[in-house]
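Researcher: Please translate sequence to structure tokens.
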Amino acid sequence: GSATFQDDAEVAAQQVVSGQATAQAALNQLAQKWDQTNQQKGKEKQRKAYRASLNLAVTGG
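Model: Translation complete:
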């Protein structure tokens, strides 16, 4: 879950800092990876986990 997102963000940041990618290219790639992760794990499951991590009600809107 969150570790995957953090790892992906760290890789993107390292690519920018090292000059391997522009900030825009790294962000575009990061967005694609996060979309893939959400699709694999299920968007609703991810949403509930995120809300729970913020101590927000998991049910409802």
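Researcher: Any highlights?
Model: The chain has a mean pLDDT of 90.
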